[in-house]
């Protein structure tokens, strides 16, 4: 497997960044293994799902960020689970956590969002964990599109646990509006669930059309990422993408 490009800022102000999307199951598993996986991927941004939401959740999320050489950008309980971590290469313009309408009897869902800069590149970012219920999930897909548009940026990415395979109507809805990064430039492995028996892709990273996808997939075989750690860290496999974001005019 060819390595993904390293993060860098180009002379024209564009930025190559690494983005990791990861459902961490409230850090109920082996958090040392989780931190090792994240660290080995050298991400500039980490889009988390099922971040800690209850007792001392901020401290737990901060501990994971510190162990992974990152900082907490936004999200957690204030977004009903999605969160964003970043490295110090990112300049943060603004953040907003969004709670979605609650359907009685179902889990509360939300988005963690931010606008950041890397060099001369300005980027909207959204982390999501969509509903298990088909109709609600489709509605949330529409809200995701609206929320990214409301960020008011030319280039944006969204990543998360979609609870749906690529043929599903919500997945298709997103892929019609954005680049499905795995489908655009497949790298590594495809399936994200489950670590013990990978057989379906329900986690994904999407990017607006102007972002160049250099590679995207599950980092099996990536230096420093072991199958033992992937199985111990959580009940999903992560998705890692390398993207080139153009400089903002």
From TrEMBL:
UniProt xrefs under Pfam families: Exo_endo_phos
Key words of the record: DNA damage, DNA repair, Hydrolase, Magnesium, Metal-binding, Nuclease
Entry's Gene Ontology molecular function annotations: hydrolase activity; metal ion binding; nuclease activity
Any one Gene Ontology BP term: DNA repair
Domain Endonuclease/exonuclease/phosphatase: 20-236
Cofactor(s) needed for function: Mn(2+); Mg(2+)
Protein name: Endonuclease/exonuclease/phosphatase domain-containing protein
Native source species: Streptomyces viridochromogenes Tue57
């Amino acid at each position: 497997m060819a390595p993904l490009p390293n993060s860098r800022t180009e002379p024209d102000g564009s930025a190559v960044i690494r983005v990791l999307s990861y459902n961490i199951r409230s850090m109920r598993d082996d958090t040392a293994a989780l931190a090792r996986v994240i660290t080995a991927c050298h991400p500039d941004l980490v889009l988390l799902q099922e971040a800690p939401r209850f007792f001392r959740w901020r401290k737990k999320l901060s501990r994971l960020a510190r162990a992974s050489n990152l900082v907490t950008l936004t999200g957690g309980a204030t977004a009903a689970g999605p969160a964003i971590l970043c490295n110090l290469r990112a300049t943060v313009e603004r953040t907003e956590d969004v709670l979605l309408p609650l359907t009685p009897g179902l889990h509360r869902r939300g988005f963690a969002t931010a606008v950041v800069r890397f060099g001369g590149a300005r980027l909207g970012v959204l982390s999501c964990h969509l509903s298990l219920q088909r109709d609600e999930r489709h509605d949330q897909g529409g809200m995701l599109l609206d929320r990214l548009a409301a960020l008011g940026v030319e280039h944006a990415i969204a990543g998360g646990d979609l609870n749906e395979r690529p043929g599903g109507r919500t997945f298709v809805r997103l892929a019609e509006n954005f680049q499905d990064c795995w489908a655009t430039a497949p790298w590594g492995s495809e399936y994200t669930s489950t670590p013990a028996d990978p057989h379906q892709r329900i986690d994904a990273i999407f990017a607006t059309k102007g972002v160049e996808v250099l590679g995207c997939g599950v980092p099996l075989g990536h230096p420093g990422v072991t199958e033992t750690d992937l199985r111990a860290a959580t009940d999903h496999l992560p998705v890692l993408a390398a993207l080139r974001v153009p400089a903002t005019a």
